[in-house]
């Protein structure tokens, strides 16, 4: 397609000057609006300089389906009222699990258009009020309701099929998948906002000590892999995926403050520029050419890299859309970090760990941090924002002076993919 | 608020070079994707010059709730696949019944940002597959689910309350409301895409002739008002609103092609410029200061007029959001066409008719053309596009050479309002 590879440039550059997350987890007492306000307060408390809420001129919220989760449509003005930012315009963006990734893109273009200088972009999802099968049903509605859902496809089934295809085509095995989970839980253990703040080893030890306390048979686990290969601890969900291959069901919200680059230093000592944005659309799974790669991810990343004027070699770290462990492996190949089929070996060799040459999902990823679907795209951006500012604490990447980070946010089975390149001024 | 009144300008000007509508009505055999393709084909067939689908670089679709109407989320990529425009980015915009109004604004900013030159913007809703009470429930979810819906509010109830407040505050009466319906049906009778293509007189005559055919008591109607005051023909829905005060439940889709102004003549002999765009957010009804005016409509229109550099005196015609007859009256006051409380008298005096000084809803409005909620905002734009190009046929406004038209699209109870100023090059 001629159009997608066309070199695209923004009329004005855009920077991120703040970011905030609600706690990720299950919060029966909280509504979507409460979660968003919590994320907003977190952002305001962590901004480098003074900030007046009346500076905000326009807002976007990514949300997959407050309609089905809470029977609440038209969520955007409710959030605006709760924040106290009426009458500024606010718009809800929906592209399934890439909703806030797409929302960020709208915020960037709103500033680049010349209309606004200061735009709030966030995302939110309140999922845990439905039972698990209800959530699975709502998420399945992001697949094609005419051609896929009636055939029995759910998202674990879809990504199970992707994993099987990857195993058939390359030398991928079940251990590769579980090693992604081990890595991401080890990162999530260092993230105070994460839904799961324990390593797999800690979870294994907890299971052993519980068995001892209860006088039950004590499992004979020697390693994380022993634990993860025990079907009582890690049951099959949709072969070859097990419980620990799946991101959890999560309530949460995220937001960032975008400003025109020329005023960024009024808000932040170390603004982070949005150097490239890319979004592309893939065919539904039933109509896709292949299962082991998402065409939209490849197109979106190429667009974002071109806009930023970078190559893969320039990228210091990435947050990718690990809704399932196999999705992280496929993402690292689609983004060009590793050749097709080489993603699993890179996991084996520790290249995607915090001290590797391609650190992936230092936040814990969707897998351990949690996946409140509408919030995840902006949540990824916040992790890169913190890492590039050297503020990620114990989970700060080991490489000195990281400058360029990438986010990769997928909606559905690759129907939408949004890739951003973030860069710290050198 | 300092922010909302700030003068805003786009970095690049944007023009409309094509527009298309599906048939509006009830189509049990059609899905959302089918409706959108029908609108797209209508647009392509009516374009002035050659058009290649590969020219489209980016797309937006407004949709209120395919989630609740069809249990289909992530509708945007499905539409893209059906149109054959993957891999270009497509994003769903949701702001209740202002969804495609907001989508248009995103399309305008996407071009103004410098990212794209050619953007497709549309809207769609498939509503009639649910029973009427189901549709009422889905629409009610655009109100506040914590504070309003549990109190029993539905949209007919909400706009009934607005009508009652207007009647209490001003000299508005039930006849004023019905005269809006009579006017809009007389316009819709001339619109081949409309759901209702009959005048109220024709509907009255049909009722009389049916009674005669069936040997039933023949109603003694002398005028449209006799007919509309018969509760068997026009039953109460939510006092003071009756059936003919309410827009119908509709399946339909709409789309326009936006391009950067400098290339507009490559696509159209008579492009129509988007001279001003405004969007504002109102508090939920339970938290509003007054019922007889929508604060978001006033703020959005002021923003759009300022951007276009016009005053009310420059406006030749308007399409306003007449989801209920009272909503049209309030809209004409909020837009500044008439002073508060003067809207009803203007209807009485025929000032809002096709040959009046402020023609309103020449398309038939939501009332007669139909209201597929996510499609309505762009549907309004298409009517102004046709009128300013002199292509509205029998329903063309009487004033010579109309140059400036306005659209007014409301989401929920005024939680969102989008106002556009369209202008033909003179």
Q: Care to describe what's here?
A:
2 copies of one chain form a homodimer. By secondary structure, chain A is of the alpha/beta class. Chain A has 15 helices and 11 strands. In chain A, the strands form 2 sheets. A 9-stranded mixed beta sheet of chain A has the order 3-2-4-7-1-8-11-10-9, with helices on both faces. In chain A, helix 2 crosses helix 4. The longest helix of chain A is centred in the middle third of the chain and has 15 residues. The first copy, chain A, is globular and about 60 Å long. The first copy, chain A, starts with a helix and ends with a strand.
Question: What topology emerges from the helices and strands here?
Answer:
Two copies of one chain form a homodimer.
Chain A lengths: L1 H4 L8 E8 L10 H14 L12 E5 L3 H5 L4 H9 L6 E5 L4 H14 L5 E8 L6 H9 L14 H15 L4 H15 L11 H14 L10 H5 L7 E3 L2 E2 L9 E9 L11 E10 L13 H14 L8 E3 L5 H10 L8 H6 L16 H5 L6 H13 L15 E8 L4 E9 L2
Parallel strand pairs in A: 2-3, 2-4, 9-10
Antiparallel strand pairs in A: 1-7, 1-8, 4-7, 5-6, 8-11, 10-11
Which key features would you list for this structure?
426 residues, alpha/beta, nine-stranded mixed β-sheet, 36% helix, globular, disordered N terminus
What structural class do the secondary elements of chain A suggest? alpha/beta
**What is the percent of helical residues of chain A?**
25-40%
Count of individual beta strands of chain A:
11
Count of DSSP-assigned helices of chain A:
15
- Assembly type of the chains comes to homodimer
Report the mean per-residue pLDDT of chain A as an integer. Answer: 96
Taking the sheet with the most strands of chain A, its summary is:
9 strands, mixed
Order of helices and strands of chain A: HEHEHHEHEHHHHHEEEEHEHHHHEE
Which chain pair shows the most residues in contact?
A-B, 74 and 74 residues
Which strand order spans the largest sheet of chain A, edge to edge or round the barrel? Answer: 3-2-4-7-1-8-11-10-9
Radius of gyration of chain A: 20 Å
As a percent range, the share of strand residues of chain A is: 15-25%
Indicate the low-confidence ranges of chain A by residue numbers: 1-5
From the N-terminal CA to the C-terminal CA of chain A, the straight-line distance is: 35 Å
| Overall body shape of chain A | globular
């Amino acid at each position: 397609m001629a159009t997608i590879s066309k070199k695209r440039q923004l009329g004005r550059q855009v920077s991120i000057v703040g970011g905030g997350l609600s706690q990720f987890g299950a919060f029966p007492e909280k509504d979507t609006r409460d979660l968003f306000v919590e994320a907003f307060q977190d952002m305001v408390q962590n901004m480098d300089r003074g900030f007046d809420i009346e500076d905000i001129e326009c807002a976007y919220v990514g949300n997959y389906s407050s309609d089905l989760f809470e029977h609440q449509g038209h969520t955007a003005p409710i959030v605006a009222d709760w924040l106290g930012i009426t009458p500024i315009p606010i718009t809800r963006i929906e592209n399934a699990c890439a909703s806030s990734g797409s929302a960020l893109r709208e915020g960037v273009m709103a500033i680049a258009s010349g209309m606004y200088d200061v735009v709030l972009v966030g995302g939110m999802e309140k999922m845990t009020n439905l039972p698990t099968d209800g959530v699975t049903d709502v998420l399945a509605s992001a697949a094609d309701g005419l051609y896929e859902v009636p055939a029995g496809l759910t998202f674990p089934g879809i990504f199970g099929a992707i994993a099987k295809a990857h195993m058939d085509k390359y030398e991928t095995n079940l251990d590769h998948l579980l090693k992604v989970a081990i890595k991401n839980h080890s990162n999530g253990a260092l993230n105070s906002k994460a839904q799961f703040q324990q390593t797999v080893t800690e979870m294994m030890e907890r299971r052993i000590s519980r068995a001892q306390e209860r006088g039950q048979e004590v499992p004979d686990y020697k390693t994380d892999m022993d634990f993860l290969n025990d079907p009582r601890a890690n049951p099959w969900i949709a072969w070859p995926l097990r419980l620990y291959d799946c991101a959890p069901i999560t309530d949460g919200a995220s937001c960032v403050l975008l400003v025109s680059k020329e005023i960024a230093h009024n808000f932040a000592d170390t603004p982070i520029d949005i150097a490239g944005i890319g979004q592309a659309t893939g065919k539904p799974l039933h109509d896709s050419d292949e299962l082991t790669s998402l065409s939209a991810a490849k197109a979106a990343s190429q667009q974002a890299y071109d806009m930023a004027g970078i190559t893969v070699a320039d990228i210091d770290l990435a947050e990718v859309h690990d809704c399932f462990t196999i999705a992280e492996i496929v993402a690292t190949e689609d983004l060009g970090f590793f050749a097709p089929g080489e993603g699993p070996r890179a996991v084996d060799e520790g290249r995607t760990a915090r001290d590797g040459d391609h650190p992936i999902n230092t936040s814990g990823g969707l897998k351990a941090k949690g996946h409140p679907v509408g919030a995840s795209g902006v949540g990824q951006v916040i992790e890169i924002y913190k890492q590039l500012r050297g503020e990620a604490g114990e989970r700060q990447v080991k490489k000195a002076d990281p400058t360029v980070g990438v986010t990769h946010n997928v909606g559905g089975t690759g129907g939408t993919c949004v890739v951003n390149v973030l860069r710290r001024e050198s």
